[in-house]
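Appendix C reproduces, verbatim, an entry submitted by the partner laboratory led by Prof. M.T., so that reviewers can inspect both the input and the predicted structure.
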Amino acid sequence: MGSVRMKPNILVTGTPGTGKTTTCSLLADDPNLNLRHINLGELVKQKNLHNGWDDEFECYILNEDLVNDELAGMMDEGGNIVDYHSCDFFPERWVDCVAVLQTDNSILYDRLTNRGYMGQKLQNNIECEIFQVLLEEAHESYSKDIIMTLQSDTIEDISRNVDLLKEWVANWSPRDQ
């Protein structure tokens, strides 16, 4: 029998611009939850967990093995909110809840263009949202009963999503890993 985590791990995923970092930061700022926010994009940069730079998409090429090696101890311990725009490479045993954030395409378009996204990078991200690629990825990788689909168009949506996730954490109970 494996060890029992005393705090859950939450994976917050979605197309860039859906509010992952804001949602995760608000959850991590709650002292009653005592959860660690892991912004995977930043961790990849800081610890060189990549295979170089992709000029076309202007981002690092993630090395999934290096990322999982880096996260293993923290995820086994529990109490993490992982913020990343993909979810299919994390071991299922690490993840207690997958929150897939979704945003209306016109709102997402404005958010991404305000960040300087253009050309192929902008088009690919909008298409990813239109075709619900990350929701499909979550369903292919995790049990449907741990997946939440959360609309993230407005500040009110984000606040409601944070409240839902706080409630989920309060009701979570440890299980054998």
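The helical segments are 20-28, 40-47, 64-77, 105-114, 119-130, 133-141, 155-171. Additional entries are available on request from the coordinating office.
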